[in-house]
Amino acid sequence: MEGLRVAGVTEVIVGKGMPSPLLPQRPDRRRVAILTQPAATSKALEIASALTSEGLLAEVIGLPDREEAKTLSVAESVYEAFAKFELSRSDTVIGVGGGTVTDLAGYVAGTWLRGVEVVHIPTTLLGAVDASIGGKTGVNLAGKNLVGVIWHPRLVVVDTRVMDELPSTLLSEGMAEAFKTGLVGDAELCSLIVSQGLHAPLDEVVRRAITVKAAIVTRDEREHGERVYLNYGHTIGHAIEYASALSHGESVSLGMIAASRVSERIHGFDGMDMVVSTIDRLGLPTSVEGVDVGRVLDLLRRDKKRDGDRLRMVLLREIEDPVLEHVEESDIEIGMSAVGL
Asked: What is the pTM of this model?
C-alpha cells in the first residue's frame, strides 16, 4: 500500500520486508532515536544497524513493557536521553513495537523541541491497524490517555512478515481491533473475521483496516465528528483496562460486547450474538471477574467523550452505521452487566 496518505501527512507502506532506504530523504537529518520494548528489541537493533550503515547516528532507547511505558516519568527519562543524545529539530524519532511504544514515541516526539519527525514501525497487529495510524499519542494520568497531543508520523511501515510470527495472544488482540474497525466502517472486513477468525489473511486484514482508518482520519483529523466512531468499545473498555490487569485488546473486546448490548437496547442492533461469538472465537474474554465496578464507574466519569456531566458513547444501529450519543447511567449498567460487571 505504498503511497497511501493519512491526513495529507503520513505515508503508509504495507508489505513483506522493510523499504530501503528506510527513512524519507532529508539532508539535514543526523541522529535517529529508536524507542522500543523488550519483545521488539532485536528488530530495533536491526533497524539501528541499517541506519548506521547509511551514515546516521542511531541510538536505541528501551522502554518498560505494555502500559508501564505510558507514564510521565518514563516520558521524562526519554527526554533526558534525547538531551544526552543531542537530538535536534532536524532529527527523527522511531517507535518500534506495539501500540504503547508508538503512543509514547509519538507523544515525546510531538513535545520535544515543540515537535520533531516521528516514524512508526509497529510489530504487533494491534499497533499496525490502530495505534500507529492517525496521530493520537498519549500517556496515562488518572485515566487512560488523558495527557497527549495529535502528532502525525511522517511514515508508518508495516512489515507483515513480523505479523506472521506473532504469539497467539497478540494476534487475537490485533484481530479484535480490526474487527472493531469492520463493525464501524467495513462490513466485508467484519465478515472476513467473523468467518475465518484468526485464520483471516493478515495482509488483507491490515490493508482493509488501515484503509478505513486512514479515510476517516483524513476527513476528521481532530475528532470533531466521525473519527470518534473508531472508539467503538473503548469507552467501557478503557475503563476496564485502567481498573484491571487486562490488556488493551482484552479490555476493548469486553467494551465492544458492552457497547453492542447498549446498542441493542437503544437501537435494536441485532449483531450482539455475532459480536460475542466472534470475540470468543478469537480467544478473548467475553466476561470478567474481580474488577472493582466502582472504580470502572469513576473512570467513566473522566472519559474524554463526556459532555458536561453526561457520558457519550459510540453505538451501532447496524454494521457500518455508528452513532455517538448521550447514554444514561442505566444504559451503562446494562452494558457492564453484559460482561459480568
From this structure: 0.89
